[in-house]
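Here is one chain, start to finish.
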Amino acid sequence: MAEDRPACVRIALFEPDIPQNTGTILRLCACLGVEAHLIEPAGFPITDRAFRRAGLDYLDRVRIVRHESWTAFDSWRRAEAMKIALFTTKGARPYLEHRFGERDILLFGRESAGVPDPVHEAADSRLIIPMQPGLRSINVAMAVAMAVGEALRQSPAKVSP
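Its structure:
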């Protein structure tokens, strides 16, 4: 785990399917000082070994918070007064038009199925990454990188060397 420091940007992965994508996202989080929340169950064992190929030795440098279920995550985020900015192909507002705040947690769905309706309904905002017509989706690791980049650009707290 990373040293304790306040996160200016947080991401959450809803029941991730592919360990390589999750490892890549955790590596990104480590490099940029972003806190990562994993909402279980995942489509693979959530262990260091499952992430090592993509995450390499960066896993010790990222703060990972595990939530045993959507219900547990939602209870935590409500208690912490966190707002969900859901990235979804069903969103209407382009993410570049959203003003990210320090209480936002950027939520990304399963690679295979996105998120179910109750998660959509719980979101404070539903954001889309505009794409060319006729294409289904952007790889989740790429989408996280784009979203985190914009959230960090807007953040008054920058990554420190």
